[in-house]
Design the sequence.
């Protein structure tokens, strides 16, 4: 069975911070061999870059999360631009960026301006993007259509409709499959992940957030990617080995990740 890549894990947060080696060992025991760590604000860039530099399984993504729109400063864009100019092979994406219309006072014009600025930086530096989207799929697709990134990216933690997922795929984007599909009540998302082409799917946890069914109240962990995979196999018709191979190849292709021996 091919190994797993957790394409979205906030490994710079507790319970992983201070327990990195043990956490990576637990992930490896579940065959999760590589992990992409997206930033939420410029304050976390040094920490994430340091993690990626010091732990071979970890890779960095730098960006400003829309949930923190009230905190981001104009100077943070200059910090991001500088980090991207000096990028190493362990910096593989711009993220987590995107739009969020679910929160109170979303400040959509400001969110859109920040998103567009970061999309332009991603295009300038030939990097894919890791995208957050809550109740904003149509607005996000419109923004992506205007920028037309050559390296595209992934819409992470997707919970929209099949038509919305297909719209992103037509633009060349991947769809992130996470713990939502482990909940029986999430019938719409389970149907979407069963219906989309394997060539469009990536595996993720969003750890320590988005705990799986049966693990509510506990921090999510990257090793749970194996359980997300198991449920995905239950929802789809293909053999598990074929599903795993596509998930691995898609992740390697998008983020230009090296193979693990």
Sequence:
């Amino acid at each position: 069975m091919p190994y797993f890549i957790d394409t979205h894990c906030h490994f710079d947060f507790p319970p992983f911070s201070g327990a990195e080696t043990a956490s990576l060992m637990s992930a490896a025991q579940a065959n999760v061999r590589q992990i992409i760590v997206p930033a939420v604000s410029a304050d976390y860039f040094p920490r994430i870059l340091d993690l990626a530099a010091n732990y071979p399984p970890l890779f960095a993504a730098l960006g400003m999360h829309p949930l923190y729109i009230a905190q981001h400063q104009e100077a943070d864009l200059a910090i991001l631009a500088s980090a991207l100019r000096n990028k190493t092979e362990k910096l593989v994406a711009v993220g987590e960026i995107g739009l969020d219309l679910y929160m109170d006072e979303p400040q959509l014009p400001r969110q859109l301006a920040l998103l567009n600025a970061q999309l332009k930086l991603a295009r300038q530096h030939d990097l894919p993007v890791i995208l957050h989207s809550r109740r904003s799929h149509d607005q996000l697709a419109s923004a992506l259509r205007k920028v037309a990134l050559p390296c595209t990216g992934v819409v992470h933690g997707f919970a929209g409709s099949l038509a919305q997922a297909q719209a992103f795929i037509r633009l060349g984007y991947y769809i992130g499959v996470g713990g939502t599909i482990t909940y029986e009540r999430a019938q719409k998302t389970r149907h979407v992940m069963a219906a989309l082409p394997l060539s469009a799917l990536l595996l993720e946890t969003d750890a320590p957030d988005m705990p799986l069914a049966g693990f509510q109240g506990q921090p999510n962990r990257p090793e749970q990617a194996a359980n997300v995979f198991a449920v995905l196999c239950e929802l789809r018709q293909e053999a598990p080995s074929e599903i795993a191979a596509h998930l691995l190849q898609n992740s390697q292709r998008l983020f230009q990740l090296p193979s693990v021996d």
Q: What stands out?
A: Residues 108-124 form the longest helix (17 residues).
